[in-house]
Amino acid sequence: ETIAREKALRDKVEAEMTEFFERRKQAKEKPAKKKPAKKKPAKKKPAKKKQWKRKFY
């Protein structure tokens, strides 16, 4: 009787472990999709003012 009980317990533990590892494997295979980070728009450098006027003054 004790042998049968031990075997049943062992089978139960083994089943739980295999289930756990299967779930873990599935989780690794299909990672959750991360939303792509929004890129910050590049700051435009202020245009240099043309100093052509200076020539005439």
Automatic annotation (TrEMBL):
Residues 21-57 are annotated as: Disordered. Residues 31-57 have a biased composition (Basic residues). Residues 21-30 have a biased composition (Basic and acidic residues). This is Uncharacterized protein.
